[in-house]
């Protein structure tokens, strides 16, 4: 699916490391992917990480490197309440978006 240009979201309740391993075993994330993680708790930390991720995109695009972004549910919830556009733009540029949710987040 990813190689066909289809944008994939994987939602899970697993820890990020476990979720990444599952995505790799299902061939949603390949060895050559650049994998980004967002697990920060505060808006400022999340913004800083997202801006750093976005800054790396031009060089990855030149090298034709696929990207995956793994997001903790709490970070997703915090960011969507504050600055949806920065988060959505970051995710839209990745082949796989994976979010870890906990019951209290849902």
Average of per-residue pLDDT values: 78
What's the gyration radius in Å? Answer: 13 Å
Query: Largest sheet, if any?
Result: 4 strands, parallel
Kindly, what is the distance between the CA atoms of the first and last residues, rounded to a whole number of angstroms?
A: 27 Å
Number of domains: 1
Runs with pLDDT <50, length 5+? none
**Rough outline:** globular
Strand content: 15-25%
Class of secondary structure makeup: alpha/beta
Number of helices, counting only DSSP H or I runs of 4 residues or more: 4
Instruction: Give the H and E element order.
Output: EHEHEHHE
- Tally of DSSP β-strands: 4
In helices, the fraction of residues equals 40-55%
Strand order of the largest sheet: 1-4-3-2
Concise synopsis of the structure shown:
Helix content is 46%, strand content 20%.
Fold blueprint:
Layout: E1 8-12, H1 16-25, E2 34-38, H2 43-62, E3 67-72, H3 73-82, H4 84-92, E4 96-100
What does this structure look like?
The protein is an alpha/beta fold and 106 residues long. It has one domain. Helix content is 46%, strand content 20%. Strands 1-4-3-2 form a 4-stranded parallel beta sheet, sandwiched between helices. β2, α2 and β3 form a beta-alpha-beta unit. The model has no long low-confidence stretch (mean pLDDT 78).
Main features:
single chain; 106 residues; alpha/beta; four-stranded parallel β-sheet; 4 strands; globular
């Amino acid at each position: 699916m990813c190689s066909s240009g289809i944008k994939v979201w994987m939602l899970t309740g697993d820890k990020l490391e476990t979720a990444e391993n599952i995505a790799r075993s299902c061939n949603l994330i390949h060895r050559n992917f650049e994998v980004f993680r967002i697990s920060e708790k505060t808006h400022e930390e999340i913004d800083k990480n997202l801006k750093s991720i976005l800054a790396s995109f031009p060089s990855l695009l030149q090298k034709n490197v696929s990207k995956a972004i793994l997001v903790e549910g709490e970070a997703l919830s915090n960011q969507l309440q504050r600055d949806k556009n920065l988060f959505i733009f970051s995710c839209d540029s990745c082949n796989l978006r994976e979010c870890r949710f906990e019951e209290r987040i849902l």
